[in-house]
Amino acid sequence: MRTISEVADDLDVPQHVIRFWETRFHQIHPLKRAGGRRYYRPEDLQTLRAIRHLLYAEGYTIRGVQKLFKEQGLKPFLGGGAGGEPTAHVAALAVEDVVADAPARAPAPAGRRAPAPTPPHAEASSDPDTPAPRAVPAAPAADPRRRAAIERALAELDAAARLLGAA
Fold this sequence. Notes:
Layout: E1 2-3, H1 4-11, H2 15-24, E2 31-32, E3 38-40, H3 42-57, H4 62-72, H5 89-92, H6 144-166
Antiparallel strand pairs: 1-3, 2-3
């Protein structure tokens, strides 16, 4: 059994995120000892890894992951991928298999986050004297709300740049 700090380090997420996931996913059952200290069993750790993978790597929303677990159970998402990642079953899921109540303004399929818009400077230039854009390393997984706000701001900036370029 492992403490919340050990689990948080292993998953590379803050402890408060794990506590929040406990409120949203009834599949997580840590043992609570005197003083409220949480101890996670191996099956809790597998569940948390599956949740983290679906949220951060696959781009599902919390509601989308809840719907997946409700419709298909937890077992298909546990296990045996490399590095403790969920099985390949997760990658093979069709977006249509998970339908969540997405807000009307969201362009992404329900249950998934919208992809980040391509910034104008990322498009290849036909001018041979223009250097190719450098690859930017991926940022660590951010809070989903913060990420959505940043994506909206980038989309607005992109639209403004196009308007200024057309003027």
